[in-house]
Amino acid sequence: MSAPAANLRINADRLWESIMEMAKIGPGVAGGNNRQTLTDEDGEGRRLFQRWCEEAGLTMGVDTMGTMFMTRPGTDPDALPVYVGSHLDTQPTGGKYDGVLGVLGGLELVRTLNDLDIKTKHPIVVVNWTNEEGTRFAPAMLASGVFAGIHEQDWAYDRVDAKGKRFGDELERIGWKGDEEVGARKMHALFELHIEQGPILEAKGKDIGVVTHGQGLRWIQCTVTGKESHTGSTPMPMRKNAGRGLAQITELVHQIAMDNAPNAVGAIGHIDVYPNSRNIIVGKAVFTIDFRSHEIDTLNGMVERLMAEAPKLCEALGVSFEAEIVGQFDPPEFDKTCVKAVRDAAERLGYSHMDIISGAGHDACWINRVAPTAMVMCPCVDGLSHNEAEEISREWAAAGADVLMHAVVETAGVVE
């Protein structure tokens, strides 16, 4: 396919105004957004997106997981579509850009093509994936996971939120359960624009991150069991303190990650201690370790080292250690041709860029299992995300959307 002209740019003001308009739906308490999946606010955001897309001449399809597919036809009726998009749902205290930039950047590139009367051989489909965040209904990237065959739809429908409400019931309640079979669509390629959610691009002074890989993940739930006893009357040598096991494993996790840096990270996130009383020595600690790396051998090696060393630490303390992997996916490597299209677009447009690894999971990571996929990233201030103070500049948004448009248009093929 021939490359689009270097002077092809999106309408930066229109993109920014659309992002700010969407941010009015489900406002947070501190300047961000609370538009969690399958809430009334999610439904309202979807309707606004639908209206904008239909005004741009796109036709809508919705699958049985509620994912929205908005199609701009191509000149070849037999050509598979090029997909572009991300998600509109947010964290409970989320920012205005996480996911939203990718969806509205996709809409903006279509609007720009319409303005300039540019036709493509392949159709272009702008997509809003349901429940990328996974905060209300775990796990994250739920709809794209069903699309890619990672999860069964019935299992996804049975996910419940903190109030016991089912995903399937809430999808019907807000009126966004479609009739398309999930995963039946075939893709020529998929591109996703996203804020980095990390500090690297800003620190390096780069406009664009060319995402070559995503990180693989292992969540290991650990249980350290000791013996509950009185903090005041139990002699120190006679204590079986599960809290000490937690403390030493915390340091072990940090050391494992540091020994594999810069190609890996690791930390303990969720922690429960029992009985969680001021004057009772911890009898049991249950916690989850999060290891991530874009190198599968590194990732597996970190887990193996944990499983070898943690039991010995606990045995020396007189407590027991048990562990099981409760979440995992292997590191995705994005399609080399699609990645090259992103890199070439940044070069052609004169934007500074660097190859980067995605530290977070994204819908593109699952779709990569079933179609050629790539991601474009733009910086965010201080790397802050999943926080209402999340911020990007208008210029960063425009640069990311420009690169996205060029990569998509080159892949979809300009019709002269």
Describe the structure.
The structure is a single chain. The chain is α/β, with parallel strands linked by helices and 416 residues long. The protein is built from 12 helices and 14 strands. The strands form 3 sheets. The chain has an 8-stranded mixed beta sheet. Strands 9-10-8-11 form a 4-stranded antiparallel beta sheet, covered by helices on one side. The N and C termini lie close together (11 Å). It has helices at 12-22, 40-55, 100-115, 142-147, 153-157, 167-173, 200-204, 242-259, 296-317, 336-349, 363-367, 394-412, and strands spanning 59-62, 68-72, 82-86, 119-120, 124-128, 189-195, 208-214, 216-225, 264-274, 284-293, 320-329, 353-358, 373-378, 414-415. The mean pLDDT is 96. A hairpin with a 5-residue loop joins strand 1 and strand 2 (68-72).
Strand content: 15-25%
Helix tally equals 12
How are strands sequenced across the largest beta sheet? Answer: 1-2-5-3-6-13-7-12
Q: If you compute it from the alpha carbons, what radius of gyration comes out, rounded to the nearest whole angstrom?
A: 23 Å
The count of strands amounts to 14
Specify the biggest β-sheet.
Answer: 8 strands, mixed
Shape: elongated
Helical content band:
25-40%
Q: Terminal Cα separation, in Å?
A: 11 Å
Structural class: alpha/beta
Give helix and strand order, one letter per element, not per position.
HHEEEHEEHHHEHEEHEEHEHEHEHE
Contiguous runs where pLDDT drops below 50 for at least 5 residues: none
Return the average pLDDT rounded to an integer.
Answer: 96
